[in-house]
Amino acid sequence: MATDQRLRDFFPPPPGLVESAHINNRDVLARMADQNLEGFWEEQAKEFEWFRPWTRVLDDSNPPFYQWFVGATTNIVYNCLDRHVRSWRRNKLAIIWEGENGDQRTFSYHALNREVCMFANVLRSMGVHKGDRVTIYMGRIPELPVAMLACAKIGAVHSVVYGGFSVEALHGRIEDSQSQVVITCDGGYMNGKIVELKNIVDEALKRCATVEHVIVVRRTGQPVTMESGRDYWYHELMTLPVARTASGNSRCETEEMDAEDPLFLLYTSGTTGRPKAILHTHGGYMVGVATTLKWVFDLKEEDRYWCTADPGWITGHSYIVYGPLLLGTTSFMYEGAPTYPYPNRWWSMVEKYGINILYTAPTAIRGLMRYGEAWPNRHDLSSLRLLGTVGEPINPEAWRWYYEAIGKGRCPIMDTWWQTETGMFMITPLPETPLKPGSATKPFPGIEADVVDENGNSLPAGEEGYLVLKRPWPAMLRNIYNDPDRYVSQYWSKFPGVYFTGDSARKDEDGYYWIIGRVDDVIKVSGYRLGTAEIESALVSHPAVAEAAAIGLPHDIKGNAIHAYVILRAGFEPSESLIEELRAHVAHEMGPIARPEKITIVSQLPKTRSGKIMRRVLKARAQGLPEGDLSTLEE
User: Fold this and answer.
1) What is the pLDDT of residue 213?
2) Contacts (Cβ under 8 Å, ≥6 apart) of 109
3) Where does the sequence pass through the membrane (predicted)?
4) Among 26, 81, 174, 386, which is least packed, fewest CB within 10 Å?
5) Same topology for domains 78-264 and 526-623, yes or no?
């Protein structure tokens, strides 16, 4: 097909970028890792400080319960903060933050460390000890990473719940983790409105017997109920003697942790079943996250890096909080929505702060595409050197718009595939990798991926199958909290000894991986399996379409028929002739079997707060069925 031919086009990296990159020969690294996996990761681990060295890099004697850097002790916060404040980086900016209403704050490594130490002392004074769980439910403000780091510093296990999740979702996560302390805000700003976080916490705690204390950051200043003996203002606690040592210093000793001690829980609903808490640990997660961030985004000391995700998701944990701080990077954080008050908000901040690296989600790119190129063209984006995407496969048209309208044809796009469970990038370009729009390219050095059939056999180029990972990696999940049986059955049972990602993919003749989407996101039409992502990509390749969602609905003859929902770009009006044109366009791009039965033009799509389309909601609405749990719904 014409589309396939177009996608085979390579976009080579700029020569100057390759010459100055940390990694300019991926193949050499990949061969080293293949020949000696443990030695490869051991070299990366030597970049960090350990209280006690490991006796063994990888213990694979009890799969799938792998252990990394066995016998070693460290603390990820020691490597994020303590070691930097002993160096010239103490006065380097760690975080630059802008609120949705325009207010600004900055933290040097020294200032961030002081804030973290004081808050860690506060938590200790409330009886939080090593191994205790703490739930964090906040807006996108600096106190969120401060809370995460303070927990990890004293060995507590943080469970961040995305700010804005429903009462039920929050209650379930607090109850499952048995948290003693909840950290929240009075409210948060999003799209010019206040999200009433404290009120949601109050409702959730009516049925949570384990919570003894609630700490509230004042952000909006709106009135909230403060329960005496339970609720405390963050700013008041930070002025009390408990925030300092007996000598009045804002110091706190960093807890020595075993490499395999728990660092955090992060709940993910997956495609089916109740939410599950993915467990990550200090040592291997630290090594994997820092190595991937440094090599993929080629971070330099002078860079200003912006990951637009929320710290409440795994992208935020790995590549807003821990990864950048491990590398001594200056990170930018923004509180609010990308189009508030106008669709140039992001581009104005790239220009204002001199952002060099921008890492965001395809859904955000498609949403901004709707407004055209005039908005980014108002701003000087010449500071950008590298772009990145995360969260879902990026359709080639959105890739090209990002590359041309934002990167001006000179910024390679690091299209990363990974999961909450993997903790770190798994399939990704490096700056020296020739790119294909829509492909995550090849596995990171040390990662062995494959595409297999129902029986676990490797498939030839071009055939769609199950994406699997064939050997352990340092940042891998260690368990599902309190549910090892589910851990084994969900991830390691379909193909024994092999990690099942739950995604479908194919490899092309160049060994590049093309992620199709979740295995469940497949529509079977007249016996043909069609990925929703492929149908949506075909729709978005039409110049009138900004975003699309495809679902399958029962059909007497075909088994399922394709129904699609589209959002139009600015300047296009809905009409029956346009709908027919879109149906014909999909048939042309994918073949007649993929022609949608019906296309509906809408103004918005149901999405999770991380930007993923909730197709099951569209399916339920179309059939008049119950919509199920909507706690992750954005609107």
Assistant:
1) 98
2) 81, 84, 85, 89, 90, 91, 92, 94, 328
3) none
4) 26
5) no
DSSP letters, 412-452, are -EEE-B--TTT-S--B---TTS-B-TT--BSBPTT--EEEE
Residues 6+ apart with CB under 8 A from 9: 436, 437
Show Cβ contacts of residue 617 under 8 Å, excluding neighbours closer than 6 positions.
Answer: 606, 627, 628, 630, 633
C-alpha distance from residue 217 to each of 77, 185, 198 (Å) = 22, 4, 9
Residue 509 is given by DSSP the state: T
Instruction: Give the whole-angstrom CA distance, residue 580 versus residue 138.
Output: 45
Q: Which amino acid is at 350?
A: V
C-beta atoms surrounding 279 within 10 Å: 20
pLDDT for residue 5: 44
> Nearest Cα to 280, choosing from 292, 262, 258?
262
Beta strands across the sheet bearing 545-555: 545-555, 559-568, 598-601
In 3-state terms, what secondary structure has residue 214? strand
Cis peptide before 64 (omega within 30 of 0): yes
C-alpha distance across the termini of the chain, in Å: 38
- Tally Cβ neighbours within 10 Å of residue 531: 24
**What is the distance, to the nearest Å, from the Cα of residue 621 to the centroid of all Cα atoms in its chain?**
28
DSSP 584-608: HHHHHHH-GGG--SEEEE-S---BB
- The structural domains of the chain, with segments of one domain joined by +, span 78-264, 526-623
State both tokens at 40: 């490869």
DSSP 114-165: HHHHHHHHHHHHTT--TT-EEEEE--SSTHHHHHHHHHHHTT-EEEE--TT-
Q: Which residue has the tokens 């994918």?
A: 590
Query: If residue 184 lies in a helix (H) or strand (E), which one and from where to where?
Result: strand 181-185
Secondary structure in 3-state letters for 475-508: CCCCEECCCHHHHHHHHCCCCCCCEEEEEEEEEC
User: What's the CA gap between 223 and 586, in Å, rounded?
Assistant: 52
Tell me: domain 526-623, CATH 3.30.530.20, correct?
A: no
Is residue 113 within 8 A of residue 86, CB to CB? The reply is: no
At residue 569, the 3 state secondary structure works out as coil
Q: Return the axis-axis angle of helices 532-540 and 576-590, rounded to nearest 10°.
A: 120
Per-residue model confidence (pLDDT) at position 6: 44
Mean of pLDDT over the chain: 92
Residues of the chain with pLDDT under 70: 1-8, 164, 246-248, 269-274, 526-529, 609-611, 627-635
Q: State the Cα–Cα distance between residues 627 and 22, nearest whole angstrom.
A: 48
Q: Which stretch of DSSP H or E encloses residue 291?
A: helix 282-296
Q: Reduced to 3 states, what is the DSSP secondary structure of residue 253?
A: coil
pLDDT of residue 7: 46
Q: Is 459 exposed, middle or buried (0-12, 13-18, 19+ CB in 10 A)?
A: middle
Cα–Cα distances (Å) from 149 to 158, 159, 268, 301, in that order, read 9, 12, 21, 22
Tokens of residue 7, six digits:
């996608």
* CA pair distance 376, 394, nearest whole angstrom: 20
